[in-house]
Write a structure and sequence with these properties.
This protein is of the alpha+beta class. It has three domains: 211 residues, HUPs (Rossmann fold); 83 residues, Uridine Diphospho-n-acetylenolpyruvylglucosamine Reductase, domain 3; 122 residues, Phenylalanyl-tRNA Synthetase, Chain B, domain 3, CATH 3.50.40. Helices cover 38% and strands 22% of the residues. The protein contains 13 helices and 22 strands. Strands 3-2-1-4-6-5 form a six-stranded mixed β-sheet, with helices on both faces. Strands 7-8-11-10-9 form a five-stranded antiparallel β-sheet. Helix 1 crosses helix 2 and helix 9 packs across helix 11. The two termini are 57 Å apart.
Length: 451
Amino acid sequence: MLTEKVYGTIIKYDMIKNGDKVLVGFSGGADSLFLMLSLIEIKKHINFDIYAAHLNHGIRGDEALNDENFVRDFCKKKNIPLFCKAVNILQISLENKISEETAGRNERYKFFKEICFKNNINKIAVAHNMNDSVETVIYNMIRGASLNGLGGIKPVNDSIIRPIIEISRDEIEKYLKQKGKSYCTDSTNLTDLYTRNKIRNLILKNMQEINPSVIQTIYSNTLNLRNDDDFINTYVQNLNCVCAEDNSVSVNKNIFDKEHICVKYRIIRYAFEMLKGNCEGISSSHLEIITNAGISGRTYDMPGGVKVSVSFDKIVFMNETNKQSGFEYNYTVGEKLEYLPGIFLTSFYCDKYYSEDSDCLYIDADKLENKNLILRSRLDGDKFIPYGMKTQKKLKKYFIEQKIPSYKRDEVPIIVDGENIVCVVPYRISDLYKVSENTKNIIKFQITKEK
């Protein structure tokens, strides 16, 4: 029996457990009806609650209303709690400049998650079948997707489960016919206006003329690809070479450079996902540019407002929108000043200093010409006399010698006394303000971070 095959999929992927609450996306079409009938049957083996959600896209007029009535009648007969909502997908797609398909998908999952949140439901069951997964593979292949995109639709994705993912559309329609079950037919699926319809109605039908079992063949291959993808993902994560920082993500270049090209590409994608939450717009050409970026100080513009720079032994990914602009403040000794979000400069007078305080700087207070200092970010042409030296050095050159990453340099606080740089916190003081055995008053500067 076909429902037993669905039960096997649920057990294999640990989709539903005793006590779960499962919200079913119920359009009234063949797939969602088969999913609902299967789950009702499987409740004999697993103790869980079923809920239904139906979204009217506002596209098919009376036909959509008939679908909603069909769903309402079914749920009433089966005593299944139903949530319905109507939206205007055409308007949403125009306002957000996205396709109707994307708008519909976004609104469906938004609706499902709202219901789950309000009703303490922990699983969302959607009716993607084997054909849907294969169509997704072909769609992603046409778009030039990575290995992840060629793995098809995952059976489980967080709280979203797909119990009929291993059942073909032909199997579903034959089952419903044998059982004498009527269902709704979406007339838009019969046209070739949408990309997926072209894949379903044209490309796959032509492929089936060559291989009648092409759906099962492609699906089996996607399982192998998904296993390969999972292995590479796990390998990359275990490398521990990608690290999230304040407003950036960095890749350890020493580890990165030793890896195979396929691992390098996956590391880069992992860094993008960690920074942006996705890899939208990242093509093979972008991966190649970053992989071959070997010159320290070079910066590359990437999709989504991301800048990638090579900084000594790191490849750094930054959101351009999060980049801090220059800053300048009047500063009085003893003040605690937040010069960047969550980052403070503190200072106070003391009578001695400790050379082992690596995160602090000490200066001779009596050597200051002004008690009203300036706290600012670097400027072009900045120079100072680093402690222990007799001549000036360009601040840019000092940063390079100290291997301070280029993306961090604009965040380094500079203390200025008139025309002179007093110190570059927390790295070096100017030799003009060094503490000596004759020093009577000392000022300590320190950076602290607070959430």
